[in-house]
Amino acid sequence: xxxxxxxxxxxxxxxxxxxxxxxxxxxxxxxxxxxxxxxxxxxxxxxxxxxxxxxxxxxxxxxxxxxxxxxxxxxxxxxxxxxxxxxxxxxxxxxxxxxxxxxxxxxxxxxxxxxxxxxxxxxxxxxxxxxxxxxxxxxxxxxxxxxxxxxxxxxxxxxxxxxxxxxxxxxxxxxxxxxxxxxxxxxxxxxxxxxxxxxxxxxxxxxxxxxxxxxxxxxxxxxxxxxxxxxxxxxxxxxxxxxxxxxxxxxxxxxxxxxxxxxxxxxxxxxxxxxxxxxxxxxxxxxxxxxxxxxxxxxxxxxxxxxxxxxxxxxxxxxxxxxxxxxxxxxxxxxxxxxxxxxxxxxxxxxxxxxxxxxx
Length: 360
Ligand SMILES: [Zn+2]
Ligand SMILES: [Zn+2]
Ligand SMILES: [Zn+2]
Fold this sequence. Notes:
- 25% of the residues lie in helices and 23% in strands.
- By secondary structure, it is α+β, with helices and mostly antiparallel strands.
- A hairpin with a 3-residue loop joins strand 12 (233-236) and strand 13 (240-243).
- The protein is globular and about 70 Å long.
- The two termini are 32 Å apart.
- The mean pLDDT is 89.
């Protein structure tokens, strides 16, 4: 299939204030070397504090699975936390300036004993355990007295993602404010619910699974655009779908959502977490087949734990997977308008065309 050049601004349906310039001609520019990176594929690195045998180099585990014997997942306090565990200052106002104490909690989840393993290569059971550990730690952290307002689970992989330690790991940050990205999603999905009576995430899933449309040019009658059912669906199973967003900020960005409406990841059942692990793994395998080593961030967006009732009908938890293939430029940072040089339709078609090895 050939893909025509696109230059258009697409409005993010969830956060209308956020739009993306899809400009595919820009992909012909010389490749950026910043995002080239050699993966360290060693399974054990003697100097790595996260490798088995070096457990004494990290703080004692907050959680370890299994609890005894050789571990497969470990969670420890971050030695360089962005938020500290000690509460000190009350909120301060200095004229126009306002200070909120940087109270919170920052921990590292060592995803796997194998230093250089990628998610695409992990066993399905292991990945399921990892997503269960995320859930467990969210439950635990929202129970801490002092009320963390938000618990954010995320992962950096590779230097282009901001990752500083090569050993595969995820992070959890409990913080005293609701992150701006989540806040915007909460507000926008809330107004969608008010206007339509529906959850916008459910509506988008539904549309991606069922919507078929062709637009024709009024003058010439020529076909201008056509969208077919499932064009944007990368993976799907009984409980989860992976979708290529129509207004993707990053060329290979993919969102994974549960089919069952729920605002809070903590409510996911073991079956749903198993299905999530399957979808994420297959998505990562597709990305690896197309991109080779994938540097990425993923973020788990769930409703704020103590305000659940407020967002229960409008918000829908999801995982955003954002591969890092380019460094944002001044225009993007200064304008807030992301430039994506690959059409989301072409990216979706490329990912869907990959044949994955049958599962054992
Ligand atoms: Zn290591
Ligand atoms: Zn929903
Ligand atoms: Zn989100």
